[in-house]
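Exercise 7.
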Amino acid sequence: MNDTAASFSPDPSHAALAHCRVLLTRPADQARSLASAICAQGGEAVSLPLLNIVPVHSPEDTQRVRSRVMALDQYAIAIFISTNAATLGLEWIENFWPQLPVGLQACAVGPGTAAVLRQLPWPVHCATTGVTSEDLLALPVLQQVQGQRIALFRGKGGRELLADTLRERGARVDYVELYTREAPAHTPVQTWQLLQEQAIDCVVLTSQQIFDTFHTLLQQGATALDVSQDSAPSALLGLQQNLTLIVPSARVEEVARRAGYPHVRNADGADDQAVLACLRQCPATPIDPQEAR
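Solution. The predicted structure, written as C-alpha cells, is:
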C-alpha cells in the first residue's frame, strides 16, 4: 500500500478541518491540490487512487479521435463531461486547430471542467445546478439543437442519457472517446486496513464508478478479514456507520444510501471548492478499529 497511498500532514495554524481525516480516491495527480487545501485548513489527507485515466492508444481509437477533431469545424457545440475529457480534448484540439473553428461553443459539466476549457477563446457554458447529465441538458444552449452537430468528448463507456436526449431533440451527436477508466490494483484487505490504521472518518468519492470500486473493496475486505463468513456483514455495517461519504451528486448519494451508508453528503460538484465546502460541514468521527471489527 505504501507505493500507492500517500499521506499529507496538516497545518495546525488553520483549524477549519481540525481532527478531520480524509481519504481521497480520485486519480493521484488530481488529488494533490485538494489534499494541500485540506491540510492548509488543519485536516489530514490520505490519497488512495481508485481510478486511473488511460488515454486511448490503439491505432483504431486514435484514428477515430483524430478524424472527429479534424472535422471540428462541422460542429456547433463541443461538450466535455469531465476535467479529464477537457484536458485531453484540448491537447487534441490544439494539435490540429491553431485557431478554433468560428462559431464553435463549449459546454462543461462543472466549474472545474469549465476552468480548463476557458484556456481557449470560445464561449463556455457551464451548469450551475450540479454536475450530472441532467444538469447539462438544462443549459439554454442545448434546448434548441434541431439539425446541429454536437461533439461529445468523454471516456469510453458511461451513461447514454446525454447523447440520447440530444438526439431526441434533433441533434446529431458524435462521441469523441479519449480515455479508458481502470481501477488500480489495491487489495480489499489493504483498503480495509488503511481505513482503520489511518482512522479515516471522511471519504471523498467523486464518481459513481469510484464509489462502486470502494464499496466492492469494503465488501470483499470484510469477508476476508473475518474468520466466520457470518460476521462479515456486521463488520461491514460497523465500518459503514463510522464513515461519512462525500459524493458529487444526488444520484450517487442515492446509490450510496441504498448500499447501506447512512452518512452521505452531496457536494453538488466534484471540484475542490465544492468538496471543501462539504467537508467543513462534516463532524470528525474517527473510526475505532475495534468497534469497526
